[in-house]
Amino acid sequence: MTLIDRTRALQKRLASENPADLDPDNARVLLDELSEVLLEHDERYYGLDDPVISDGEYDALMAALVHIENLHPDMVDPNSPTKRVGSEPLSSFRKVDHPEPLLSLSNGFSGEDIRAWYERNVRSLGSSDNSHEGGALPKLVVEPKIDGVALALTYENGDLVRAATRGNGRTGEDVTENVRTIRCVPLSLSGSDFPGRLEVRGEVYFSRSAFERLNARLERDGSKLFANARNAAAGSLRQLDSRVTARRPLSFYSYATGPASDTLSASHFVRLQHLQKWGLPVSPDNRLVNSIDEAISIALAWADRRDDMEYEIDGVVIKFDDTSVQNRLGSVSNAPRWAIAYKFPAQEVTTTLRDIVVNVGRTGQITPEAILEPVQIGGVRVSQATLHNADYVRSRDIRIGDTVVVKRAGDVIPQVLGPVPSARSGSEQIWVFPTRCPVCGAPLERLEGEADTYCVSADCPEQFVRLLEHFASRNAMDIEGLGSRLALQLAGGRLVRRLDDLYRLQLQDLMDLDGFGRKKAQNLLDGIVQSRDRPLSRLLFALGIRHVGKTTSESLVTQFDSIDSIASASIEVLQRVDGVGSVVAQSVHDWFEVEENKRLVAALASLGVNTVRMDEEAHIQRSTGPLAGKTVVITGTFEYMTRGEVEKLIAAHGGKTTSSVSRNTDYLVSGTSPGSKLAKATELGIPVLSESDLKNMIS
Ligand code: IVH
Asked: pTM to 2 decimals?
């Protein structure tokens, strides 16, 4: 029976029967069925973000389970879903002293730092204990350093009796009521061989997908969004109303044991395995290794993969596995000597938002931009960052003067993720989106259903400078030497007022420009002349039609043999092209309807610019083949290719790669050590391909 069939059967039964009339055996059957069905609905809601019943239906089933549990308290399972719904709000959190302090970690920033740490420790072990000289090298455990909030859980006789935050390491806050709502934290341990009293330490966090879901929901509700997953975890854990925490899809991974009433295994790794056996979540990425070389190579590999992991990590923790070795090494101030965090270069930092300005793009798109107190992120100085659009600033309540979290990852443009409200002084200014173009003064427009605002004036000089720059850029007409400075010079000096003016420029015009001699002018002119022979798809992209990127241009050109045939195509016909939806089709159609644009295209053609399809453009593999239009996720490591090569191969065959598995994923390409993406894909029934399956598929 499917989940929904079981749910309907239960609803029918509850409508016609009063649980109070049931004998204990039947009550037990009903209670078990309700618990199982509710747990499955929890998994759909929290784990898969795919609820199959309404909140009201869920609440009714939960109320029925509470009712039966009240009638038969002896039947209540300590991990029952009724224990996860939260309780009355607290007025404050009680302070709790940790029986043993929760230590912090010392940091290393390179393979050499880690090796030096290891060698120092091995030397000190060797000098205090001769058995280590020439003997087996101590084993190490490599664990992801999860970027969340530290938590200590206390179990007494297998029952969760307390959950406390780290606080200052000695005293934390009692967040038991909130932690009881975290689905993956067992309220009662499995098995029987656990110590009577056991403290488990670990990290509360949001998986990437859960965090995105949370912010999407907060945005729908008009609530303030969280800047990042870590802040969201901290904020959700510190809710005085645990019913609010109960609605937040938080997760937890255990990474250590604290004080215990019985002797635990001498191996840290085995301890983690025991925790897992008792029902506690442990990261599947932890590794036990025999040498520091292995540990370092895993740490470096994770640094490369960090953006692909299902949860955010800010480093890798390396620990000596043998707890007697740990005890011998001991601690310095507040960090153990037996562990080190290999910290990844920061991708996020905080700084002050000095001002917000708006930029005008080539399509007239107005983008708010943050002017920041300059900061270093991953070795790069950042003083500006994007704020995307009006809603982005409003929903995050980003104010001028705020301390803000700024992210710069890989090649991505730096972006402001959100404010740190606790750092406010009260003098911060709420920013108002302008109603007129800051360059030409024309009223701005925001189209129905679109997030972006545009300057729609055809005469806006700033738009034209951006368009000219785009027209000449590498993936468009590729005119060497024509970058943003020259675009401004040409457009500002009124030498080029429309794109076709470029092809009318004479040598003397260019020699008259500041900084131009004969040679430079001639080179530029040659570049402009050469650009007349670019393929049609480049010209189409170069025109700067809204929503028409490089890939869309290439797809369009496979179906039309000239710019004229695209110009005269109806919206319906345009939409038949792979990858062209109604928005793109409408935008292309509208662009070619504008008289000024018609004149531009005719002028370009008459000046010798190619406007017909070249032979090779008709057969871009993209629109056909097994991966055309498919969304693919990559996970794990591969034998013959790097991940970058796998990605390129997929793109070359028309597929698109994304970072997380969802219902929209068509395939998961999985190597070794696939992690949670594989589990998710299997759950969702998404086909999983190996490296060789992928090659066979496209060969
Ligand atoms: S071990 C005595 N292992 O990192 C050792 N910590 O910067 C204490 N963290 O407060 C911690 N992942 O919250 C350890 N696998 C891991 C961890 C981890 C994340 C956090 C932890 C701690 C902080 C120290």
From this structure: 0.72
**Whose CA is closest to atom 12 on ligand 1?**
145
Q: Which CATH superfamily is domain 461-531 in?
A: 5' to 3' exonuclease, C-terminal subdomain (1.10.150.20)
What does the alpha-carbon distance between residue 200 and residue 275 come to, in Å, rounded to a whole number?
8
Does the annotation count 145 as an active-site position? yes
User: Does the domain at residues 3-84 carry the CATH identifier 1.10.287.610?
Assistant: yes
Residue spans per domain, the chain: 3-84, 113-343, 348-430, 461-531, 621-699
Burial class (CB within 10 angstroms; exposed 0-12, middle 13-18, buried 19+) of 614:
middle
Question: How confident is the model over 459-486, as pLDDT tens digits?
Answer: 788 999 999 999 999 999 999 999 999 9
CATH-assigned architecture of domain 113-343: 2-Layer Sandwich (3.30)
Q: Is 317's C-beta closer than 6 angstroms to any atom of ligand 1?
A: yes
Write down the pLDDT at residue 638.
Answer: 81
Centre of ligand 1 to C-alpha 288, Å, is: 17
Indicate the top mutation candidate among 106, 142, 145, 288 to test ligand 1's pocket, ranked by most ligand atoms within 8 A of CB.
145
Share of the chain above pLDDT 70, in %: 97
List, in sequence order, every beta strand (DSSP E) within 346-470. 348-360, 365-377, 380-386, 399-400, 403-407, 415-419, 429-430, 444-446, 453-455
